[in-house]
Amino acid sequence: MVIIDGLKLDLADVVAVADGEHVTLDPEAVVRMDESRKSAEATALRRPVYGRSTGVGANRTVSLTEADGGDTHGLKLLRSHAVDAGKPLDRRTVRAMLVVRLSQLAAGGSGINPAIAQALVELINSNVVPEIREFGGIGTADLQALAGTALTMLGERQPLGGGEVPVRLAGWATADALPFISSSALTIGQAILAHQKLSTLLDSAASTAALSFVAMSGNSEALSPAVAAAADTPEVASAATMFHSMVQGTGEPARIQDPYCLRTLPQIFGSQAEELARLHALLSRLVTAGNENPLIHGAPSDRTNDVAHHGLFQMTNLARRVDSLQLAIGAACATHLRRIDLLCDPKYTRLHPFLAQDGSGQSGVMMLEYVAAAAVGRIRANAQPVSLQTVVLSLGAEEDASFASVATAQLESTADALAIVAAVELVCASRALRLQGRQPEEFTSPRLRAMMQAGLTLPSDMEDRDLRGDLERAAELIGASS
């Protein structure tokens, strides 16, 4: 059970809920939300409040009391904003969105009725989720996804795969419509799932790169404490220390100076770790940030209650952070491919070309390099900066967009492709070490020893054959190992 208090939510907990864990609201969060609701109501009595007493977007100058008395505007807003298109997102992604939104509401800046948050708890715990489609958000709040969620909670839209919502809301007050949908919870949830997957993948990829280093008798001087001390960032220094501890004592170097794909391992993985940490810090803030527009603050009890109309829902920083991580991963791909290439080269492994069983012209792992290159093509395409995009919408009322939603969807695609690249390297490195007669017991590093033991669970048959099964198994190992 994950407790949602609106103050802190570990990214690992978001993943746990996405994978089926139940949630509960902290009682203090319920009190905080109720105080926010009272504050919003008090403020609306003395000044216009966007979306509560006015229309939204280009209709922000329209008074709801003039338009239709304000009685049905909330339902109209949800229905009109719920349109999306494309393929339905998977249940795991939608659950991540729901728990992120619940955590944000629990922060107490929306002014929403706590009963809606309680209904959201029941929805998550029932595993009945709304059907959310891929196209809708542009990085300025996931209005369509959350409006569609509201319609599902009202019983107006069928859940993903059918089923019944556990608590069907009888109506939706105008005061609660915009506060519920004014969030980038889907974009944030997708980013968290991709971030956590990449955290595991990059750890596994580093261990696999160390196996390649050993298989090619790399020179550990490039990873020495002296090099770590001279590194330009703490993350590069840490990566040098990590790699040095893994490969130290694994054999004599074959060269005075290695190719870049071995010599620059600290920079390659250190830069990725640096960007991963920065994205982690931002996401950790966003899961409890009250970015709803308008932001409710103060308390009616001491007459400090007010609202702030703002633009924090514009996920500019998230788009740039994802772009930076994508660039770091994309830039590293050249060295991934080069290590795979050199593992196929007898000059570096003292084995037959393409790690074949013998010299009779067998192709060995030749085609795995093509598979890795295809996956790298996807990663490099995804690394084109999304944050440079923009668009003008709603009669010019919204003249910029971060497209963070596109960036996070691409980050998920990058994670899937990187798993393939790392799996290819694991198959090749493990095969090379097996052919060299190396054993896990030779390695003093528990991490390296564990990675080689995992690699030795791959099929040992070296004859030319269908390697799809090997690659699928290696991808499983890459996703589970660290």
Automatic annotation (TrEMBL):
GO molecular function: ammonia-lyase activity
Keyword field: Lyase
Alphabetical list of InterPro entries matching this protein: Aromatic_Lyase (IPR001106), Fumarase/histidase_N (IPR024083), L-Aspartase-like (IPR008948)
SUPFAM superfamilies: L-aspartase-like (SSF48557)
Protein name in UniProt: Histidine ammonia-lyase
Gene: hutH_3
